[in-house]
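Can you give me the bound-state structure? Components:
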Amino acid sequence: MDASGELRVGMVGYAFMGAAHSQAWRTVNRVFDLPLRARLTAVCGRDESNVRAAASRLGWERAVTDWRELVASDDIDVIDICTPGDSHCEIAIAALAAGKHVICEKPLANTVEEARSMVAAAEAARAGGVRSMCGYNYRRVPAVSYLRQLVAGGRLGTIRHVRAVYLQDWIVDPEFPLVWRLQKDKAGSGALGDIGAHIVDLTQYVTGQAVTGVSALTETFIKERPLPSASSGLSASGGAETGTVTVDDAALFIARLSGGAVATYEASRFATGRKNGLRVELNGSKGSAVFDLERLNELEFYDGTGPGAEQGFTRILVTEPDHPYVAAWWPPGHGLGYEHSFTHQMRDFVEAVATGKDPEPSFADAFQVQRVLDAVERSSASGSGWTDV
Amino acid sequence: MDASGELRVGMVGYAFMGAAHSQAWRTVNRVFDLPLRARLTAVCGRDESNVRAAASRLGWERAVTDWRELVASDDIDVIDICTPGDSHCEIAIAALAAGKHVICEKPLANTVEEARSMVAAAEAARAGGVRSMCGYNYRRVPAVSYLRQLVAGGRLGTIRHVRAVYLQDWIVDPEFPLVWRLQKDKAGSGALGDIGAHIVDLTQYVTGQAVTGVSALTETFIKERPLPSASSGLSASGGAETGTVTVDDAALFIARLSGGAVATYEASRFATGRKNGLRVELNGSKGSAVFDLERLNELEFYDGTGPGAEQGFTRILVTEPDHPYVAAWWPPGHGLGYEHSFTHQMRDFVEAVATGKDPEPSFADAFQVQRVLDAVERSSASGSGWTDV
Amino acid sequence: MDASGELRVGMVGYAFMGAAHSQAWRTVNRVFDLPLRARLTAVCGRDESNVRAAASRLGWERAVTDWRELVASDDIDVIDICTPGDSHCEIAIAALAAGKHVICEKPLANTVEEARSMVAAAEAARAGGVRSMCGYNYRRVPAVSYLRQLVAGGRLGTIRHVRAVYLQDWIVDPEFPLVWRLQKDKAGSGALGDIGAHIVDLTQYVTGQAVTGVSALTETFIKERPLPSASSGLSASGGAETGTVTVDDAALFIARLSGGAVATYEASRFATGRKNGLRVELNGSKGSAVFDLERLNELEFYDGTGPGAEQGFTRILVTEPDHPYVAAWWPPGHGLGYEHSFTHQMRDFVEAVATGKDPEPSFADAFQVQRVLDAVERSSASGSGWTDV
Amino acid sequence: MDASGELRVGMVGYAFMGAAHSQAWRTVNRVFDLPLRARLTAVCGRDESNVRAAASRLGWERAVTDWRELVASDDIDVIDICTPGDSHCEIAIAALAAGKHVICEKPLANTVEEARSMVAAAEAARAGGVRSMCGYNYRRVPAVSYLRQLVAGGRLGTIRHVRAVYLQDWIVDPEFPLVWRLQKDKAGSGALGDIGAHIVDLTQYVTGQAVTGVSALTETFIKERPLPSASSGLSASGGAETGTVTVDDAALFIARLSGGAVATYEASRFATGRKNGLRVELNGSKGSAVFDLERLNELEFYDGTGPGAEQGFTRILVTEPDHPYVAAWWPPGHGLGYEHSFTHQMRDFVEAVATGKDPEPSFADAFQVQRVLDAVERSSASGSGWTDV
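Here's the bound-state model for the whole set.
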């Protein structure tokens, strides 16, 4: 941050995630009272005309075509990494070495090795007051944050069961083209790393337990797809030639967690009708809870300690002033949307930087997720045998 | 608009509605491609230090304390009225006379007479290319806009039944103080004008039918309340002295619509557990639909023309690119929130101004709502007798 | 009852209601421990071969063609009236005069006058230990009985709002024929008496308040229909000739209740997609509740007295042993169906007869419902003016 | 069957399952037109006074204390086995050898070996026209039967994903006693065989695919429990001494099915708040469907082939005359309950016997389920390695 109380951001990447982050950076100080004011200083992309257009539309002051330029700039305090996973490691390590705070989209990296080196870089930089964070934004959906509070407060008792799915259906059509998210060299993995990573992080966060071992299978239902004529985020139009899908369409695993819970996990892009179907259920010795991202303003909570005849799942509308993040927004019942999770993420990041604390999830937290994903792939590759994380 | 392609906005009022409008003005050009770019030129409020703070927080370039100054400013193209209803008429008429485009929060005015004079002013200004619009923002929730499309496309057939409630519970506690929304001279009416107005407008909009007559009752359950020590939007803390509640707590009416439908309407601030419970159901000769604001990314649609065994209410997640407004935002299933209805409203307003068209709802549309509210009050005052609008 | 501990039933009518009652009589002693055992002694219908077939199928020992024969039989203790409303009065009064206990399907009668004379007959017979009851079976859905307990126990506080609909769609098709339920001389009224009666009784029962006045409208959307070639309960096939529909298709009214609540009621057979959509919501000063007959094993309860952040509508699965009637059936979560409300009704009737108590709802309770329906018709006929019950 | 057109049933066991079967046998001919009439000839239990009381309450003509007496009786056509799993094999084989038709509760047996010998006995008897069936009653919930029709008709396309849970919570309390269902020698297994068996059968039935391999884990959360002072079905009161729980509390597995689908399965008695939470979701290339036993009159169906903007999960109320089994019951929207699945099962069994066809599920079908359960146990015992069925 400079003396003016600003936190000057340089963002790398401006597609889906870049747009979401931009909306968050633009909004965060308009809604929350914070000690630093975010400034959308520069955005970076490889194509000059495209990145200029993006800067204009999304509200960034200048556009650059080389992320190294951002890392080297004096007027940048934060590097916000919104690129595909294959470039996270190089950018993050360079940025940290340059003394820039880093916020890096999930998954932290495409391989455990990259992730490990990023953790080391973050640890080293931390000594110099440089902050780093991985962008598991769903932690900051108010209902998820509130669920974490309920569990931490003992309201569910000992957690016995975790049941987590993240279901989408955007590639059910065999003619959907081979976009970068279906290529292992760019994306690292398929449904597993893209959306499976979210439910691993989210369940570890809300339970306070780590996945310790898994037994897994992965599947690629459609093995050849048309090459894309042009790719843009999640959608694209296909051409005549085809290529091989090198990532999983779906990943399923059973797991054990460090606190004694057993779990099922499933991530799929072939769940027809499920658009963004992240659903997590916890069953504990005292209570249970269910979160569904398609109804993100709600949390279902079962309190098993009250009078039996009155027990049931309570649909809590997580829009009250005493719910996390909510007081800054609208009156009760006036729901938030997907993008607000990013605004909350930036709120906490800005506050952490300003107050000299380490934001969460740290690179180390994200590395743990990466190790779980790695165990899933190893188990799947070895006939679903039990695999320790 | 000036030659630079900007649409320079002056907003009057900066409380709940002002914050929502600010978020919309800041966001609209970041998400939608529009021929004009909104500029947050000035905000107006009576208390100088408060309005300065609001300008800084909400992102307005300057703060003024007299709305007449905004109306007289050369660098203002649009007056955006976010004050309580008792000042709408005077501000709007002055702004229109000064050639400013006007967007005015609902209800249009506190009385039919005021509303009528505003319509006349809008009609007069229109001849000179000046645009006006009333802020019934819920029309622009994608699910509501889409419902309008379904009805207009004949998918529900002849509408037989309209069933609309808008239920809140923020004054159930008798100790909740006598804020301005509970005072007839400021607010015009209570639940009726504040939230009942929304369901009248919304149902008239989606059905394309006008309410022609009503039979109504209104009720004030708690007739004396503590005077507020300080008031701020929907919440306040009460003091020791009390005053008389001069507005309705709840309004209930049955109605007939111009196309032959019969209807029930209910607006209440005493519906314990309902935070922002706007729910509308339409039953037609071919199909039915249900919208619930607490789940605003969804629309339930019943298609009565398909195979009988497969019929049922379909929960449409209104987050697909071919749903109204949605393509500009996030991928399917990544829901929007309350505030987005305002961004959509500003999108349509900006486009109307830029292309020289009249935005909807017009002041005349809003006047029709006002006349329905007036008929409700007259019916209630005369023992619930049938009252033509 | 005779010395053998049997309660010998003679049932008049064997269509939809007769089948439901038969299932209840057959089952009641198999599930509940009761001091008397119901015996399905005789069933009555006008067509000899049809009534014989019904007796065989439904399990009645003998079939008769004249209800007077049943009333005169020594081996009949109870007359169970399942005919259309136009014959209730004559049969019930004769049966009571003959010292038979009477259970009469709702609505009690087609007119207030008939209902009044039935009440007088019941009062007279009561002196001689003869019991009478009207068949508002939904009171005995466990979730409804439990809701009554919650209200009576003060869990909702003072009831402010009642919101009740009973929506069906079986005559939306204009070609659906003119069955007896669409003829005023047989059915008394249309949606109002058939299903509107249920929500009036149910809401008066659960709130403990009586409807004291209404403002109403009724509508007949389709005024001419094909004459039925043959009629059977709710379904029939139409012929070429047409006749005039003499009952309402829909009835809507607002009301006040004796305890200060205000209410909306709506009954319709034109609510496309709603098959048996009885839905009741109560809002009180301390809590709220919702019951929906299409999900009859559930009750939604909002407890407004707990910690704010945890409040919400709790979906209670009313299948626990400490819920009314449930302990006699299956383990938790193993839901009941529509027919069980009749079994519970017979359980309470048998117990009342055996223990010499008056079962509820009494004819007087049902007469009060009849007076509400009459006020609705009078209000509707007089331009929706307020009409005291 | 004897010449009188009766099918004379002898039932072994009269607890929870016996009560459910009794209700079904009593009701089946009252609702369905069938070529044979079931007669509740005899019930068998070990304790003479208890079985006499049960016969009287449940409506059986005589009570016996040795099942061999039933098997030897000339006036018994069907042996209905409702005992715990450890006695299924012996009774069924003896009954089949005696030429009695057999309906046997699930799971077919406690071990694969027993189940295999039962299949052999059934095959042998079949040559002589003797029928056998296993009681996976949930196949006959109308919504499940209808789901099978949708899948068989190709409405879901190729099934990609199966997601099945059966969740209960009746032993969450560590003080709940060690009833027979928690003892391996009586029950064979815990949640796995009791409720996991249901979801294996149900998903194999509706998909038409067989589970071919699994990777599994099982868990017993509470390893010591009080010995029961007296046991009765699902509930019991505990004493001071304790014993070891020898069955699983929960079983989780991932699986592959013969048609290429991948699946997750979970059965647990520790899912706080879930009373009878059987939930199955199928995702296919053309559509998806969800069934939830706690709302058994509903089926959610997603048709992925229609106009994109109108797609969504349709909540079908499976209460229409053209849904399986429904025409015999009540009008649309008048829902059925848990017990009706047994009545439908008996309907199909009676019809199969009368028409000389083999009812489903056959012992061989149930044996396949048994083999899946066995694979689950073997996988769990061997560190969750992949295990072929």
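A couple of observations. Chain B has two domains: 6-138, 139-359+368-381. Residues 139-359+368-381 of chain B form a domain with the Dihydrodipicolinate Reductase; domain 2 fold (CATH 3.30.360.10).
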